[in-house]
Amino acid sequence: MSSPRIAFLASSAAPAQQALAELTARYGQWQPEQADVLCPLGGDGFMLQTLHRHGDLGLPVFGLKLGTVGFLMNQHRPEDDLCQRLAGGQPAHLHPLEMTAFTAGGEQVSERAYNDVSMLRQTRQAAHIGIDLNGQERLPELVGDGVLVASPAGSTAYNYSAHGPVLPLGSQTIALTPLAAYRPRRWRGAILKANTVVRFRVLDPVKRPVSVTADSHETRDVLQVTIVQSQRHVSLLFDPEHNLEERILNEQFLS
To answer: CB-side exposure of 221: number of CA atoms within 13 Å?
Structure first.
């Protein structure tokens, strides 16, 4: 069996650049468009950059942790045979969130998010946001710092720090989580079916402007944002002993 054609992609961090030189010398290097598998070297931030840039290629992705945070990455073990690890990798299928935003300037912006889409106040004034699900108003007015929608893979990131639920991978759910809600004070969010169409309406955009961020892509002065989970997916590969599903499960038992 021939070795896979690997496209190594590295962050600017020194350890990632050093690993890039060593790995390409050992396994060769292919452009993403000609490769069988993508191998980003870095942290979770660089993994998300890789998915945004090359996710449409439909290639499996095997990340190696050479950054600060590596929840979506595998351990970098230079002594191991990478081709054998790739052959034994277990896939985790991630369905990104598709976001469409309309701004006060008349723009329509579409972005994809593998972790979360978050609405955040732009000033010291609390945001006032209405929430509709599948075209039906569910919360007339949320007052607070904002609100987010997270995928299962992203539920352990910003969503978790905002006291949102950790969602099992493959659960066909998404998390709707308020950010420092002032009213209604006892509302802690909701777990929704993955095919739910979520719409946020900014109720006072002049006095209380709001921005939206899809992963790291920010759009300011939004009036309305619609979010739905994509039918398309990307496949991340993980070593069997430390796959993503097990990591997410472990997060639910951390104190």
So the answer is: 7
CA–CA gap between residue 167 and residue 153 (Å, rounded):
8
Domain map (residue ranges) of the chain: 6-94+233-251, 97-229
**Which residues define the annotated binding site?**
44-45, 115-116, 145, 153, 156-161, 180
Q: Give residue-wise pLDDT tens across range 173-214.
A: 999 999 999 999 889 999 999 999 999 999 999 999 999 999
CATH H-level, domain 6-94+233-251: superfamily:
Probable inorganic polyphosphate/atp-NAD kinase; domain 1 (3.40.50.10330)
Give CA–CA dist 93/51, Å, rounded. 12
Place of tokens 């709001």: 210
- Going by the annotation, the residues of the binding site for NAD(+) are 44-45, 115-116, 145, 153, 156-161, 180
Rounded to a whole number of angstroms, the CA Rg of the chain reads: 20
Tokens 């007052």 belong to: 143
In single-letter form, the type of residue at position 108 comes to: Q
CATH of 97-229, one of 1.10.8.10, 2.60.200.30, 3.40.50.720, 3.90.180.10: 2.60.200.30
Supply the residues annotated as catalytic. 44
Nearest in space to 39 (alpha carbons), one of 78, 65, 18, 14: 65
